[in-house]
Write a structure and sequence with these properties.
Strand order of the largest sheet: 7-8-9-6-10-11-12-15
Oligomer: single chain
Pfam families: GFO_IDH_MocA
Protein name: Gfo/Idh/MocA family oxidoreductase
Distance between the termini: 31 Å
InterPro entries: Gfo/Idh/MocA-like_OxRdtase_N (IPR000683), Gfo/Idh/MocA_Oxidoreductases (IPR051450), NAD(P)-bd_dom_sf (IPR036291)
CATH superfamily of the largest domain: Dihydrodipicolinate Reductase, domain 2
Number of strands: 15
GO molecular function: nucleotide binding
Mean pLDDT: 89
Largest sheet: 8 strands, mixed
Organism: Natrarchaeobius chitinivorans
Strand content: 25-35%
């Protein structure tokens, strides 16, 4: 991919954030900390919020049009129903975009956004942040050498004030749908799913060839859990997203020992802890985005990846909601919900 704004030479990439709620503010914070990035401004319909965030991170509150005139790249962290309008405006202005998940409200909108970015030679990256969790990156390094049987993901947590604003399939499970798809590099079929407590708890089981993946998401569990378990013939991998840790469990061979003249049986497991280069996933994500913008390379999480994840969560949500599978719409949602 080539970009109209490349090469940048030695000057910093001029970045901005559109939508400075909880996630957007964090993007502003990280941009303000990155080397070779100039946070030129933030935009939000809530002007007082935008002014506070701008003051906090040493930048300026601007209108969206003003921001697009000054930026090379922006994060779009507005409500999902506004993704299409805002992202297409950014692309029309010649600005590279990182859009928060899910990519769009409909598959058709996502595909149109992807085509416009491609036609314009611009980067369109989707904010599936767990791809940049150091523990997940370690799993990607290990998985090719394993004969995988199953994956089990748990993304659980207690109720929050924001939890009523979106269901767990689109807000939480979408992360693990993306991770499992990227690890196995296949589309799921078949899919079964069940939900409870008005969409605040859901579980889905998906087939990826000979591999079974079970995903559970909850906003009614009184403990925050973010885990992935990979069962392979050679070992068991336990991944903790919060601790950014990976444990490898291997079964040792049984043996008989002679102790004080008595023969005893022993069978122990071997636990390995591979090195994980810990760091903030959002920082890794934005560094990757800026690098793609600067070099004109393909982003690590493409628009096509975002569309694939959206298609899968639509299928899961249709089953959970006991509706006919919608091919295009995800349903109305008011805001992005924190992962």
């Amino acid at each position: 991919m080539s970009t109209e704004r490349s090469p940048f030479g030695s000057r910093p990439v001029r970045a901005g954030v559109i939508g400075v709620g909880a996630m957007g503010e964090n993007h502003a914070r990280v941009y303000s900390e990155l080397r070779d990035v100039d946070l030129v401004g933030v935009a939000d319909r809530q002007t007082e919020l935008a002014e506070r965030v701008a003051d906090e991170y040493g930048t300026t509150r601007l209108s969206m049009d003003e921001l697009l005139e000054r930026c090379d790249a922006v994060t779009v962290a507005v409500p999902t129903h506004a993704h299409y309008e805002v992202v297409t405006s950014c692309l029309a202005a010649g600005v590279h975009v990182l859009v928060e998940k899910p990519i769009a409200e409909t598959i058709e909108e996502g595909r149109t956004m992807a085509k416009r970015a491609d036609d314009a030679g611009l980067v369109l990256q989707v904010g599936h942040i767990e791809r940049f969790n150091p523990a997940v990156r370690t799993v990607h390094e290990l998985i090719d050498d394993l004969d995988v049987i199953s994956l089990e993901a748990e993304r659980l947590g207690p109720p929050t004030d924001r939890s009523a604003l979106g269901n767990v399939v689109f807000d939480l499970m979408v992360h693990d749908v993306d991770i499992v798809g990227s690890v196995l590099e296949e589309e799921p079929a078949p899919i079964t799913a069940m939900g409870a407590d008005d969409g605040r708890y859901a579980t889905a089981t998906m087939g990826y060839g000979d591999v079974v993946a079970t995903l559970t998401a909850s906003r009614v569990t009184q403990k925050k859990v973010r885990k992935l378990t990979v069962t392979a013939r050679e070992c068991l991998l336990e991944v903790d997203y919060l601790e950014q840790s990976v444990l490898i469990h291997r079964d040792s061979y049984p043996e008989y020992l002679v102790d004080d003249g008595q023969r005893r049986y022993r069978h122990e497991s071997v636990v390995e802890r591979p090195r994980v280069d810990n760091g903030e996933p959002l920082r890794h994500e934005l560094e990757s985005f800026v690098e793609a913008v600067r070099t004109g390379s393909t982003p690590e999480v493409t628009a096509e990846d975002g569309i694939d994840a959206l298609e899968t969560v639509q299928r899961i949500d249709a089953i959970v909601s006991d509706e006919a599978p919608p091919r295009e719409r995800t349903g109305e949602r008011e805001r992005e919900v924190e992962a």
